[in-house]
Each structure stands twice: as structure tokens, then as C-alpha cells.
Amino acid sequence: MYQQLGADDALSVLFERFDSQHFMLRDFYTDCHAIKFLTSLITIPRLPNNPPNLQVNEDGSSAPASRPRSTTDSTPQLSSQPTAAFEAPPEAPPVDLVFLQQTGIFDQQQQEQQRIQQELELQRQQQLQEQAQKQRLFEEQQRQQEQRFLQEQQLLLQQQTQAQQSRVSELEHDLLMFKNQYDNDQSLLQQYDSRVKSLETELSNFNNTASQQIASKDEQIRNLEEQISNWAKKYESLAKLYSQLRQEHLNLLSKFKKIQQKINSAQESIMKKEKFEKDLKAKNIELADLIRERDRARLDLDRVKASKDQEIEKLQTELRELNNQVNESGKLQSMNLSSIISKHQNEIDNLNTQLAERDLKLTNLGGNDLQEKLKEKEIDLEIAQESLDSALRELANSKNDQDEIVNAEIDHILLQNIDKLRKLIDVILANNIKRIQDTKYELESPMQAGNLNASPEYLLSIVELCSDTATDFSTTFNNFIADGKASYEAEDSGYSEIILTSSELTTSVNDLMLNAKGIGRNIPRDDEEKVLLLVSKVLASTESFFQGLNSQSLNLLEDDEDKLDKVIDSNLQLQHDLQELGKHIDTLRSTHGINFSLGNLEDIVQNEMDQTAKAVNSASKFLHDLLLNANISGGKLEVHEALVAAAVAVTDAVALLIVAATESQREIVSKGRGDQTRTEFYKKNNRWTEGLISASKAVAGATNILIQTADGVLKESNSHEQLIVASNEVAASTAQLVAASRVKANFVSKTQDNLETASSKVSSACKGLVNKVQELLSTEESSNDIDLSKLTPYEGKTVEMEQQVQILKLENSLNSARKRLAEIRKHGYRDDNSDDEE
């Protein structure tokens, strides 16, 4: 710019600004040099005190540094040498200059330029003053820094001198201490010398005594070594004895384990045995009474036989005498003899009639067993009467020979029958194995949905039934093995019980599979897989249980004790698998169960049954009052009456079923509790109790849903399909109640038969309600049918496509509804039912 303009006045402001910035930058660098940490990081440049000269000569070299401008100069000195690159502006035409001068514009411009130059000069002077002041401040700071540095140096020198003086004093003090210490050490050395001499004398004495002690210790060591060798021999013998005892202990532990398993499996048998013993005691009392009556009858019979024998002998002697008299008297006395014989014959007949009357009286006094005994005695009496003839004696001898032959044949036939019965038991076991295999196939088959209305409580009762049935089968088979050949000869042989209990076990395991698979669809996936895995383990244990009891497997064992152990081990394995399944199902039950430690369980069960009966009765009453509602439209009155009549039939049948279930439950408790109280029986069979209460609650809830749905149908707020679903729910809940009662039902029970009959009535009533609703739906659909004969091909195809679209929509809705139903049922097993909350 200087080379282009060539005017110092125009660039003076820029020169001054450059100079001021130069001084400021130099001050900043100086302050930075004072900071040691900053100088250790970066290199700070140094600037000269004066700014560089910005003016250049004509040859391009820098002009010598100008001296500082005086503050008194009023006008700047402009350079008279223009730069090479600067071009002088063209001069204005004289006409314009004259014109400007004439108008006064030129004067104004001159004044304005002078004013601007004065302002610039004032600014320059102010900047120069500021720079001078800053220079003075900088010099003052440097002087202060130098003074501080000198003071610090003096302070350091003073500190060093003081430290040296203190160090000299310390050294002097240490020297005195060392000198005193040296004197003390010299005195101590003299004392130590005297002490060492005394210790040397003591050491020599000690060495003498130590040598003597070492000799005695060597002798003791030799004695101890001999003792150690003796103890080592004793230890080896004790180690051998310990190994023998340990082996015997392990053998005893294995035997104890087997005995413990037998005890565990025999506990239930002991309880049943105690029950049977009590029944046996009662029967023994009755039998003692019968025996006393039998003894009385035998005494009477012996008296009659004795009197009869005496009379017969008397008559025989008289007959012989008469025969002799007849032979002696001849034909003349034949008439008298015949009359006498007829007279005696009449007396014999009278005695026989009297004996028959007494026998009849004795038969009236005794039971069937006494009658059989008396018949045998009569046969013996007839044989005794006929034994008077010698021909009958020979016939009796020949009969004895024939009896021996018959007994030999009977033994042969008995052995054949034993083999046949064993084969029959093998066939029954094989059939049960096949049924178990079919059950396993159904468990894995997706076509078998199981009992969708099953609950965890009911499934627990089925698990308990399987456990009891397996124990009964094990006990029956053990008794069969223990009895041996006698079990085939007895009339109440065990093979019939084996067939019955094995079939019951197979049936109960099949029910377990169906109900487990039913609840598997209503619980989370992980729980479903766990339940199905445990059920498959139970089925496998049952199958191996049956396979291990056939004659081929049992014949491989040496004695009956091994066979009994085989049965007990198989039963324990099955019981273990059932317990694992029961523990897992316990976690699937409702969060609020029955607290068996509080309250009277008999009252709780009775209250639940009473509440169910009240709910059914109130439902029936509500259905009777539905037709009196004024909101029902008159055009559908007949249809509504038919629906209400069918619903009333369902509720009446359910009421009868509740009554029958209550009676069956009472009979089960009264016959199954023994000496226990009802509460103890409910606590012992807690799973069955929970299943029974859950089933009764389900019946009450399903009945309430039925009446609410029927009310909604009459008020046209619910659909007929909802009524069908409610009816099916009632039928399913009543079937669950019947199945819960069937678990503990007695054999050939009249109350259970009544309950089954009531259940069939409920099913029939529900079917009737469903059929009635379906008839109404079919009637409505027939009224909406289209006459296909009047449709064109295009319209027929359109209708067909519309129906396909509707079917697809309904299928999608059905799948989504099934998913929601599964989620609702899964949630129902984790939370409380609505009845529990109420």
C-alpha cells in the first residue's frame, strides 16, 4: 500500500496501529517468558523493542529505522518518492477546478481534510502516550522482577547458611555422643570379657552333662523304636480290621437301604393290614358266636346219634332174636313174626321222622355252613347205617383206591392249571404293556387333545389314585409270589386280584395322560414340556414295571426274596416319578389354595357343596322368572319358552347331580376314614379334597354363566352360540365333579351309581338344549337361503367367492379366538378365579 499510494499521511493511522500491536505482542511474550511451566512446554519467540520500518527505498531495500516521532510535530512528513507500482491519477480538467473554486466546494473539502488530519494527529498522539506509559510500566515490572529475584537469592543464601550452621552444631553434638558411647563400649567390653570366661567354664560343664544326657537319650530312642515297630504291627492289624469292618458296614448299608425301601413300600400295606385286622376281629367275634352255635348243634346231633345208634342196636338185636325165633318156630309163627317186624319197622320210621324234625330244627338254628355240616353228618349217618352190610364195606375200600387215583389226576391237572394261569397272567401283563404303549403314542400324537376341562387339582387326585393303585398292585403281586402254589389252590386266589389291580393301574395311568395333556394346552410352553416329560417318565416306569413281572423275567431270579425285591424296586421307581409329577403340578395350582391347618375341613367341604347347591337352585328359580320379564318381545315368546324349558331341565339335572355328589362324598368319607375323623381324612387326602372343591366351584360358576347367557339371549344381548358354549361348559364341569368322586368311590357303590345316572341326565339335558338352539339356528339360516336356481353363472361364481372369503375370515377369527382362549386359560392357572375373589 505504501508503494502504491506513496503518501505518508494517508497511511499514518495504519503505521500507528501496527506499532501499538507490536508493543502489545511484545508485552504478551514477555509475560509468557515469566511463566516457567509454559516455557517448558513451548518455545516463545522474542520481539525487538522497536517495530520494523515499513518504508522502502526506490531500490526495494528497507529504509533505515526512523527515529521516534516527536509528539510536538503537528503535520506528518510525507514521502516524496512514489513506488514503482503506483500510477498518478489523471489531473482533472481546468474547467472543473475553476467551477469548484467558484462554487466554494473545494474550500469545504480542504476544511474537511484539515479537520480529519487534526483528529488523526490527536489519535496518534494519544497512542504514543499510551505506548510510552506501557513502556514505563513494562520497565517498572522488569525492575520489580529483578528486585524479587535478588531478594529470593538473598533469602536462599540466608537459608543455606542457617542450614549449614545447624548441621555443624548437630555434627558437634553427634561427636560428643560418639565419644561418650566409645567410653561406655570400652567398659562394656571389659565386662563382656569377664562374662565370656565365666560362660566358657559353664559351657564346658554343660558339654559334660549333655554328653551324659545324649547317651541316655540314645538308649531311650532305641526303646522307642522298638515300641514304634510294635505299634506299627498293631496299626496294620487294626487297618485290616477297619477295612473288614468298613466292607461289612457298606454291605449293611446296602441291606439297610433295601430294608428301608421295603419298609416304605410296606407302610401302606401295614395300614391296610391294620384295617383288615380290625375287620377280622369283628368277623372273628361273629365267627365265635357261630362256632358256639355250631358246637351246640353238634352236641345235640351227637346226642341224637347216640340215642339213635342205641335204638338201632336194640332193634337189630331184637330183629336177630326174632329171626332166630322165626327160623325155630317155622311157618306157624311167620304171621306173628311179620306183625312184630312191621311193628318194629314202624317204630324205626317214627324215630327217623323224629330225627328229621330235629335236623330241621338244627338247620333253622345254624347258618349255611352249619347246614352243609349237617348234610355231611347225615351222609355219614347213612354210610354208618349202610356199613352194617358187608357189601358196602367192600365198596368203600374200592372207593378209597379210586380216590387215590383221582387225587393223582387232580395233582396233574393242578400243575397244568398253574402253568395256564401263569401264561394267563403273562398275557394280561402283555396286554397292559400294549395299552401303555398306546397311551405313550397318544401322548406324543397331536391328534389327541386330552381333557381340555381338566384342572391341576383334579390332575393331582389322578396322580394320587395312580400311586394308590400301583401300591395295591405291588402288594397283591407280592402276596401272590409269597403264597406260591397255595395261591392257585385257594378259592380266593391272588391271580384274579392281579388282573383287576393291573387293569386299574393301566386305566388310571391313561387318565393321567389325558388330563395332563388337557392342561398342557392351557399353561406356558415350558411348563407344558415339563409336564409331558414327567408323564412320559411315569409311562416308561409303568411299562418297565409290567415287563419285569412276567414269568420269563421272574424265572431268572434265584429265590422268592429277589422276586419280592424286584417288585418293590419297580414300585418305588414309579412312586418317585409320580411324586415328581405331583410336585410340579402343585406349582400350577391357583395362588389361593385350601389351608389344611386352619378350620374344620369337613365344614369347608360341606359349605362348598351347599353353596354349589344354592347357586344351582337360584339359577333354576331365575330361569323360571325369566318369562315374566316385560322386556321379552312377544313375537319370539314360543322360542324363548323352549329355550328356558331346556335350560331349566339342565339346572334341575345339575341339582340332582349335586345331591348325588354330596351323598357319594359322605359315603366315601364314612367308609374310607376308618378310625380317623372326617377332618383327618380330608387332610390325608388333601389332593382329592382340593379336586372335589374345585369341581364343585366349577359347576356353580358354569351354572351362573348359563343363566346369565340365557338371560342375555332372551334380552337379545347374547347370541345363541354363547348359549351353546355355556351348556357345554356345564356338561364339562359336571363331568369333572363325577370324575373327582369316582377317584375315591367304593366298589359297587349305590351312591356312585346314582351320581353316574345324574351325570348322564345332565349330559342329556345339555344335549337337548344344544339341539334346540341348533334347530333355531338352522331355521334362521333356512329363511336366509338364496334360490340358487335363479342365479346366473356370473352371480353364482360371485356368491361362491363371497362364501369362500367369509369362510377364510371365519377361520382367521377362529384361530385368533383359540389363541386368546389359550392365553386366558394360561392366565387362569396363575391367578385366582372369580369365585375365589368373591
TrEMBL record:
Its main location: cytoplasm. InterPro entries: I/LWEQ_dom_sf (IPR035964), ILWEQ_dom (IPR002558), Sla2_fam (IPR030224). Residues 48-91 are annotated as: Disordered. Residues 52-83 have a biased composition (Polar residues). One of its GO terms (molecular function) is clathrin light chain binding. The keyword Cytoplasm applies. Keywords: Coiled coil, Cytoplasm. One of its GO terms (cellular component) is actin cortical patch. Residues 106-142, 182-248, 273-401 form a coiled coil. GO terms for biological process: actin filament organization; clathrin coat assembly; endocytosis. It comes from the Eukaryota. Residues 593-832 form the I/LWEQ domain. It is found in: Cytoplasm. This is I/LWEQ domain-containing protein. It comes from Cerrena zonata.
